[in-house]
Design brief:
560 residues, alpha/beta, 2 domains, 19 helices
Length: 560
């Protein structure tokens, strides 16, 4: 449950701290005192969107911290474990927003993404805002409530249905793809077979392209090559023969070596050089004799390279890519040749999956009808307690033409406030006050299913008063026996049932307006109820009325 809230530099709130109790906590105050501001601040601590506009003028940043006791909330402790955050004395959710709009979120002092705050909010708090009553009028709300109420039986079937629904749509999409292909099968098959033939007939070989490119370079530069080789050969064994020069040098050294044997090694080196150069000479002569320009071969190489370059442009950058493309189109062609068989197979699979889905949808419908009957029976009972003794609510069922992600059920709230009046769509007949009471009845029924320890009502009393307000107060008090309730109200009947009563005041200090929070003692509660009941009237009768409200509330709560 929520233990404490600390708000600093948030709008009109300079610094406010308030502690909460288990049971029923109530905020009251003059219109414009800042009750809604407080809920906004709390929502920001829970990860709601934040704006720098909330930062109190003249300050650098706002800070909101909410402290929770999670000893009895295993879901919150599990989230801490998942985040690797220690848990000792409680859960501290903190949000800081600078005047520049920078947001920082921490959990127990560890900085986290804002989304983590929202994950904690989902298991800790249910906020029923001023406009939440309108949720009753949303098209999918009856189904959501019904599934939540009967989740033990409905959830496993719904999970199976959703899984089957995904598979059904996958098969359906695949069948449509095959059918679309089938319509153009001949045209597509002709193209694929032409591509297969083109690549196959090319008879490409791994490494061939590099070899062709090297050969083409030689053929294109044949004249330059032959000129250079001929010139080199002339230098080796021509007019100024390197071979003759080496032979003469060798002869001179050999003559000298007769007198100095240390020169023998040099003579041997010259001999080796002469032999090497002689071998080179023979190789050059062979090259000149056997490497005449082959125009026919050049034309073939050019043609072959053109083929390679054309196929590269169409099918892939290299041999492996072209070969991979060939395998792919061969597979596609094979599939096309078997398209009729594939379509027939997918059609059969779709029919089987549709049968499964139909059975699961029908099962869901039956479970929902049973759950809806029990749910509306309980809601109707609570509506009667809320000054609508003849009120009745039901859920009607119609079937969609096709499968939806949650089944085939179209569910609608039907409502009648008075005996003898026909049930009609809730959206068409319910007043604002009736919606408030129905919403409270729903929350009462589903409190345990919501699975959160704290419930917040922000002016749920819209459009009601008198006896109805008294009944609503009693109902909220009943809810608070099983969990923590925090309520913002304008009605003294509701405020009188509080286990902790907090008054919100707007005051001026130092030339600035600010909001203050004060926990009221018994005397303060009487004074506040007098204000809420009679305004500025401080008569004895007004005081007695306030005291009577408190006494009656205490009597109801003690009666248990």
């Amino acid at each position: 449950m929520l233990q404490a809230l600390h708000v600093h530099n948030f709008a009109l709130i300079e610094d406010a701290k308030v502690e909460f109790t288990g049971g029923f906590n109530v905020f009251t105050g003059e219109t414009g005192a800042g009750k809604s501001i407080l809920i906004d601040a709390f929502s920001i601590a829970l990860g709601a969107r934040a704006s720098a506009d909330y930062v109190r003028s003249g300050t650098d940043a706002l800070i909101v911290q909410a402290v929770f006791d999670i000893d009895d909330c295993p879901a919150a402790r599990k989230l801490l474990e998942e985040q690797g955050i220690d848990y000792e004395d409680g859960l501290f959710l903190r949000r800081r927003i600078t005047a520049a709009g920078k947001s920082t979120a921490t959990v127990n002092g560890v900085q986290v993404p804002v989304a983590v705050l929202r994950s904690f909010a989902a298991v800790l708090v249910d906020v029923h805002g001023q406009h939440e009553n309108q949720a009753l009028l949303k098209a999918d709300f009856p189904q959501q409530l019904t599934d939540l109420y009967g989740h033990t039986e409905i959830a496993p079937v719904l999970e199976n249905y959703r899984s089957a629904f995904v598979e059904y749509n996958h098969i359906k999409d695949e069948l449509e793809r095959l059918q679309n292909i089938g319509q153009d099968r001949e045209r597509i098959l002709d193209r694929l077979e032409w591509e297969i033939e083109e690549i196959t007939n090319a008879n490409l070989q791994a490494g061939e392209l590099d070899e062709l490119q090297d050969e083409w370079k030689r053929l294109q530069n044949n004249g330059k090559i032959m000129h250079s080789v001929s010139a080199a050969n002339e230098l080796v064994d021509g007019k100024y023969s390197a071979l003759d020069a080496l032979a003469e040098a060798r002869s001179k050294i050999e003559s000298a070596a007769r007198y100095d044997v240390s020169l023998n090694a040099n003579a041997e080196l010259l001999e080796s050089c002469w032999l090497t150069l002689e071998e080179c000479h023979k190789n050059l002569l062979d090259y000149l004799e056997n490497n005449e320009f082959d125009a026919e071969r050049a034309a073939y190489v050019e043609q072959r390279l053109d083929l390679w370059y054309r196929l590269q442009k169409k099918y892939g950058a290299d041999y492996d890519a072209i070969n991979a493309y060939l395998q792919k189109v061969q597979q596609e062609a094979d599939e096309l040749k078997e398209i009729d068989r594939s379509i027939a197979q997918k059609t059969k699979e779709l029919a089987q999956k549709k049968e499964t889905l139909t059975k699961l949808a029908a099962q869901l419908t039956e479970l929902r009808k049973h759950s809806a009957q029990l749910l509306t029976k309980e809601i109707t009972a609570h509506i009667a307690d809320l000054a609508m003794p003849q009120g009745k609510i039901e859920i009607s069922f119609t079937q969609k033409d096709d499968f939806g992600k949650n089944g085939c059920d179209e569910m609608t709230f039907l409502f009648s406030a008075n005996a003898g009046e026909p049930l009609m769509e809730l959206i068409k007949v319910a007043s604002g006050g009736e919606l408030s009471r129905i919403a409270l009845a729903v929350k009462t029924v589903l409190f345990n299913e919501l699975g959160v320890p704290t419930m917040i009502f922000d002016e749920i009393d819209t459009g009601i008063g008198g006896v109805t307000a008294q009944k609503m107060a009693e109902k909220i008090a009943v809810i608070s026996r099983n969990g923590q309730v925090i309520c913002i109200t304008h009605l003294p009947q509701i405020a009188s049932f509080a286990d902790r009563h907090i008054k919100i005041n707007k005051v001026s200090a130092g030339g600035r307006t600010q909001t203050e929070l004060n926990v009221l003692d018994e005397t303060g509660r009487v004074d506040e109820l007098m204000r809420m009941t009679a305004g500025e009237n401080t008569s004895e009768a007004a005081r007695q009325n306030a005291e009577e409200l408190l006494a009656n509330a205490a009597k109801f709560k003690n009666a248990g």
